[in-house]
C-alpha cells in the first residue's frame, strides 16, 4: 500500500473523495504495510488532534518518542532527542544514521518503538531518508518500529522532488480526507503564477536593468573614444613632414654628456654645480654610437656581512660532529639527551614522590586519576590516603606549567577500573577521582618531554 505505487490524487472537489479517519488509516498502514507515514495538511490545527490521538492510543509498555520540531534544530540535535527519549543513558554516536543507531538499540531491548515527529516540514532530506530506511530495515528484521510524521505540504514537496529515495518506504497521507496522496498530486505542485517571482523581486530586477543600461552606456563611450584616437593626426597649415628632417633634429633621449666636455676653453670657468646640472640633447650620431658600443655593466659588489651567533654555533656543531664521526664515537641524538634531562628534572621537582613514566608506556588499559598538583610540596594528608592503594606518578603540562598527576595502577579494561573506583576509601572518593585511558596519559607525557 505504498503511496508511491498504489496511491490516488486529491482533486479540488472534496465531494469526489470519500473522507475517512486519518487515525484509522495510520493504524491500518502500521499493521500491514509497516512503512513510515507522513501526514500532510496545510493547517497545523488538523495535525495536532491526530498526533494527540495516536499518542494516546499507544499501550503503556510501548517505547515512544515525541518531538515538536522547529527550524532551529539541526540533524544532530534531532537524532539526540529521539534516541535520548527512547533509550535514556545509552551511549550512541549522534553523527551515525538513525537507521543504524535505533536498530542496534532495538535489538537489545526487543520492545515496540514509536517515533512521532510534529512539524516535519523542518526535517532535512537526510533525516527523511534515515527515518524511512529505519522503518524498512525494522520490517525486514521483524522489529516493531512505528514512524509517524506530521507536516505541511512543504514536507510533501521535499519527498515528491526526491521520490526515488522513498519508493516502498514512505506513505503520504492526507490529514483532511484520510486518503493516500500521490507524489504527483496537485497539493505538491507550485500553484503560484509565473509573475509572482517578478512581483517579489521587482527591486532586484530594477537594479539589474539599471546596471545593464549603465554598462551599455560605458561601452558606447569607450568605443567613441577609441574611434577618435584611431583617426589620423593631421597638422593644420603645415607642410608634409620629412623623415630626414625629423631624424636630423635632436631626439628626446638624453645622454649624460657634460656641456663642459664639448664647450670651448673659455667656458671652462663655470662652477662644478652649473656643469653637472646642465645637459645636452643627444645627437643622432651619439645615439648610434651608444647603440653600437654600449658601456659594460659592472656587477655590483655585495659587502660581506659579519657572521651571526647562530652561524658560529652551527659551524662549531658541524665540526664537532665530523670529528666524532672520524674517531668512531657514537653521537647521542639531541632528543634522547633532552628526554633524559627531562626525567632527571622531574625527579628533582617531585622530591616527595617518584615519577615513573615508563610504567605507563609499558601498559595498556585504564587508570583512576586520584589527584593533580602544581606545587612541588604535596600535602601530608594525601600520602596518608595513598598508603592503602598502589599508585603511580607522572608529570604533564597544564597551561604551560608542570603538573604532578597521581593515578592508580593500570587496569586491563574499563569495567575493572569502574569496580576499583567504587571500592576506593572515602578519603580518596572525596577528591572526585575519575577514569582515564593510558593512551591519553602517554600523549600527555610525550608533550611534557618535548617541551623540556
Helix-strand sequence: HEHEHHEHEHEHHHEHHEHHHHEHEEHHEH
Largest sheet: 5 strands, parallel
CATH class of the domain at 14-188: Alpha Beta
From the 3D coordinates, which CATH architecture of the domain at 14-188 would you assign?
3-Layer(aba) Sandwich
Q: Mind telling me the C-alpha Rg?
A: 44 Å
Report how far the terminal alpha carbons are from each other. 71 Å
Supply the CATH superfamily name of the domain at 14-188: P-loop containing nucleotide triphosphate hydrolases
Unreliably modeled segments: 1-15, 232-239, 252-273, 314-351
Q: Looking at the structure, what is the overall shape?
A: flat
CATH fold call of the domain at 14-188: Rossmann fold
Spatial order of the strands in the main sheet?
2-3-4-1-5
> What is the SS-derived class?
alpha/beta
If helices are DSSP runs of H or I spanning 4 or more residues, what is the number of helices? 19
Account of the protein in words:
46% of the residues lie in helices and 14% in strands. By secondary structure, it is α/β, with parallel strands linked by helices. Among the domains are: 14-188, 3-Layer(aba) Sandwich (Rossmann fold); 334-451, Alpha-Beta Plaits (2-Layer Sandwich), CATH 3.30.70. Strands 2-3-4-1-5 form a 5-stranded parallel beta sheet, sandwiched between helices. Helix 4 packs parallel to helix 5 (125-140). The longest helix has 29 residues, at 202-230. The model is unreliable at 1-15, 232-239, 252-273 and 314-351 (pLDDT under 50).
